[in-house]
Design brief:
The structure holds 3 protein chains of 3 kinds. Chain A has helices at residues 46-51, 81-86, 103-113, 118-131, 148-160, 178-194, 206-212, 230-235, 237-242, 249-261, 272-285; strands spanning 3-12, 20-30, 35-39, 61-66, 69-71, 87-90, 166-170, 198-202, 215-220, 223-228. By secondary structure, chain A is of the alpha/beta class. Chain C has one domain: 3-Layer(aba) Sandwich (Rossmann fold). Chain C starts with 5 loop residues before the first strand and ends with a helix. Chain C has 11 helices and 10 strands. The chains are: A alpha/beta, B mainly alpha, C alpha/beta. Chain C: Belongs to the ABC transporter superfamily.
């Protein structure tokens, strides 16, 4: 499903003394099947942007086109329900949304809300619990007896159960330890490829953006500051630094090497492997500067 | 951003009313609430209204803002008025439609009772509009201080109140987050059948309760870590200072009381 | 050698109704002015140690000594005055209605006279660079700002030691930097001992000394250099290595003869340059 933002503006508490413009002049297109990372500071408009993706927020002006649907300031919430099934959102700390007595019931909650028959929802729950890396016997347990990391996986399964075409992830690894973080990011990447999802990842981690995303959208002070491939976005570290954002460690290394060695490294150096290879080549050439 | 509802509705300002000692304000409002019931004729009601409006004017909060705050209770006022209009059968009949007759006493009673109600709400609103919740808490704690001797846990009650107030915005933010997360899973908070509505409410309340208990637990641990062990031997950062102007305002209420006693019939 | 400011000897702990120990036979010391990091995956027992250090939990076995005195019911309140703990969730440790009220909270608990309080609050707020926010309510502050207020609340008590219990894990990169920078400054300028409990090895790399916890036990102890030599052993227990270390080991695999023992990108660049120019 293609997603297109056209001149989107969002003002909180519009027409009141507390009005605050969180987004303006946002024109951006996310093509179907892409893995897009949205980066930017807290308060840059990232989270407001993502809430437009499934109609949790409506633009105060402009339009958001999601597949066949168009959301404008006039479109009523009633008509937005079908959209919410197509666009699944995993919020920050998704384990805070768990409430059912058993894991199975909690995973089935979403599908049942959208009218999926009960036995099909249950079948899905069994499939998904394995997909998120938990064993089937967790299904009968109370979600509140699980560890924090397991609870998060259950909550994610609850969103995946909607079988969305677009998966929106808001800082899905916040608070996890390094191993948990890595496992979770790999899981989303696998889902992205296997289910041909359109994935939108909101993150503070430039490493994750570089590692997984096809495209990066940089938000700054309520509007799109930059949009391009990781290579394009991270090419100009100084400009990013000017708005308080950094580049991945690998790109930092590449830039420092280029400066120190007086050479140009052609590789974008987005991952450790890529960077190691680029350095190896640099040494193999053996030419003195 | 949760700004739809502002609990306490404090309006920042530096008016004389804002700067009154919260204890004085609490006493004034409390006394006013009691003496309102002394009024029983036009003169006494006029006097009470004059006092309340003068008090509101001194706060420098725009009347339009105060009026907006009073809007929700207008229906109650109207209902009271109508009730008295038709139910009180005193004095001459002024107007008659079929079986319903409006008596002179009914009009009088209706107007007085509605006015009394309006004045009560106005004065208590003035308290919250001009006093921060934490000042109210401090004032209550100080005024109830003597009760400590009777083993009433005044300090604990005040701290409880202060912490609850502190966490209201946090919990409202949390509520909004959970509602959004459940909405993304297909919950419709705005409509649906009764059973669907119940389910929607459960899907909001259970997570909210769980997170609140977790917060309470963590907060208690943090308080202990920061050396909290009850009110014993504790000093207070916030100190209330009684100023001459506070005495003047209390004297005005005493005067109001005296005049009411003289003028009531 | 001076007596350690903190020493824990053979401490074990298990939570009620649990058969497994959360912390088992743990011993270590901290010197005055030191920055000591305790690292480990989630659930490795790090936070349990923090809670025991200020008497929020009581060890089943073993002894904890702070400032040369045994931690027990008689000394616990003094310890809580001299040792400040910053918790993970910025919201759930903010007690006061405003920033100044929150800083005052611990002062009130310790019966500090009001006039002195005002002075100490002013001093503490300055040390965390939050002066403009003195009258702010917590919901108008960012996570990093709230954590700095928590630190100010500790500073107002003129502490000897600050414990950061995953204090930066819920913050965005900017907030994390703000908090670490504040604590680093206090550690250097005022020689406040810092015990930082974290799963972020990048953060731990800047400590004087590291203690690695795994499944409730101390797995290793040493300088960052000594610890990072463990390499993949750390990754196996769920931790991540600093970028320069990870990069270095990949380059060695590719036959570039780098030596071990650098943790920052700058050091790695210099090392590569030395190798390159020798060729």
């Amino acid at each position: 499903m293609d997603i297109v933002f056209e001149k989107v503006e969002h003002v909180y508490n519009a027409r009141s003394p507390l009005a605050r413009r969180a987004l303006y002049d946002v024109n951006v297109a996310i093509r179907s099947g892409a893995y897009v990372a949205v980066v930017g500071h807290t308060g840059s408009g990232k989270s407001t942007l993502l809430q437009h993706l499934n109609g949790l927020l409506q633009p105060t002006s402009g339009a958001v086109k999601i597949g066949e649907e168009t959301i404008t300031s006039h479109k009523r919430p009633k008509q937005l329900k079908p959209l919410r099934k197509k666009v699944g959102v995993v919020f920050q700390f998704p384990e805070h949304q768990l409430f059912e007595e058993t894991v199975e019931k909690d995973i089935c909650f979403g599908p049942l809300n959208f009218g999926v028959p009960e036995d099909e929802a249950k079948r899905k729950a069994r499939e998904l619990i394995k997909l998120v890396g938990l064993s089937e016997d967790v299904l009968v347990r109370s979600p509140f007896d699980l560890s924090g990391g397991q609870m998060r996986r259950v909550a994610i399964a609850g969103v995946l159960a909607l079988e969305p075409e677009v998966l929106v992830l808001d800082e899905p690894t916040a608070g996890l330890d390094p191993r948990g973080r890595k496992e979770m990011m790999e899981m989303f990447y696998r889902l992205h490829r296997e289910k041909q999802l359109t994935t939108v990842l909101v993150t503070h981690s430039m490493e994750d953006a570089a590692r997984y995303a096809d495209e990066i959208i940089v938000m700054h002070e309520g509007t799109v500051w930059g949009h391009g491939t990781p290579e394009e976005i991270f090419r100009d570290a100084d400009k990013l630094a000017a708005i308080g954002l950094s580049v991945p460690e690998t790109v930092k290394l590449k830039q420092q090497l280029e400066k120190r060695f007086g050479v140009v490294i052609p590789s974008p150096c987005l991952t450790l492997e890529q960077t190691a290879e680029a350095i190896q080549q640099l040494f193999a050439k053996g030419e003195r500067p | 951003m949760t700004n739809h509802l502002i609990i306490g509705q404090y309006v920042p300002g530096h008016s004389v009313i804002h700067r009154l000692d919260p204890r004085a304000k609490l006493l004034i409002v409390f006394a006013y609430v009691l003496i309102v019931f002394l009024a029983n004729n036009a003169a006494t009601y006029a006097l009470l209204s004059l006092f309340a409006f003068a008090f509101a004017a001194l706060s420098r909060i725009p009347f339009s803002f105060i009026a907006r705050g009073l809007k929700p209770i207008l229906w109650v006022v109207l209902f009271t008025l109508l009730l008295h209009l038709f139910m009180t059968k005193e004095g001459d009949v002024i107007y008659q439609i079929g079986a319903l007759s409006v008596y002179e006493g009914g009009i009088k009673q209706g107007v007085f009772i509605s006015l009394r109600f309006l004045l009560l709400v106005l004065m208590t609103t003035m308290l919250t509009l001009t006093t921060t919740p934490i000042e109210v808490t401090d004032g209550v704690e100080s005024l109830l201080g003597p009760l400590k001797k009777m083993r009433v846990p005044v300090h604990e009650l005040a701290l409880m109140m202060a912490i609850s107030l502190r966490f209201i915005p946090t919990l409202m933010e949390e509520t909004e987050k959970i509602m959004k997360a459940q909405a993304a899973r297909g919950v419709d908070f705005s409509g649906g059948r009764f059973s669907e509505r119940m389910k929607a409410i459960v899907s909001l309340l259970v997570p909210l309760f769980i997170s609140s208990f977790k917060r309470a637990d963590e907060l208690a641990t943090a308080m202990e870590a920061r050396g909290y062990r009850g009110g014993e031997g504790r000093t207070k950062f916030r100190q209330l200072a009684w100023k001459p102007v506070d005495t003047v305002f209390l004297a005005a209420v005493a005067l109001l009381f005296a005049l009411l006693c003289l003028l009531r019939s | 050698m001076a007596e350690p400011i903190l020493s824990i000897e053979g401490v074990s702990f298990r939570y009620p109704n649990q058969s497994d120990y959360a912390v088992q036979n743990v011993s270590f010391t901290a010197e005055r002015g030191e920055w000591l990091a305790i690292v480990g995956h989630n659930g490795s027992g790090k936070s349990t140690i923090a809670r025991m250090l200020i008497g929020l939990l009581r060890p089943e076995r073993g002894a904890i000594r702070l400032f040369g005195r045994l931690l027990n019911d008689a000394t616990v309140w003094e310890v809580r005055r001299r040792v400040g703990l910053v918790f993970q969730n910025p919201d759930n440790q903010f007690v006061g209605a405003t920033v100044e009220d929150d800083i005052a909270f611990a002062l009130e608990n310790n019966g500090i006279p009001r006039l002195e309080m005002v002075e100490r609050i002013r001093e503490a707020i300055r040390q965390v660079h939050m002066e403009p926010f003195l009258h702010y309510e917590p919901h108008r502050l960012s996570g990093g700002q709230k954590q700095r207020v928590a630190i100010a609340g500790i500073l107002a008590l003129r502490p000897d030691m600050i414990i950061l219990d995953e204090a930066t894990s819920m913050l965005d990169p900017r907030g994390r930097e703000e908090v670490l920078e504040t604590v680093r400054r206090l550690n250097r300028q005022q020689r406040i001992t810092v015990l930082s409990i974290t799963h972020d090895l990048e953060e731990a790399a800047k400590a004087d000394r590291l203690i690695v916890m795994n499944k409730g036990e101390v797995m290793a102890e040493g300088t960052p250099e000594q610890i990072f030599r463990l390499g993949s052993k750390l990754e196996r227990i769920g931790l991540d290595l600093p970028f320069a270390v990870k990069m270095g080991s990949r380059l060695r695999e590719r036959g570039i003869p780098l030596r071990i023992g650098y943790f920052t990108t700058e050091e790695l660049v210099e090392e590569l340059w030395t190798l390159y120019s020798k060729k």
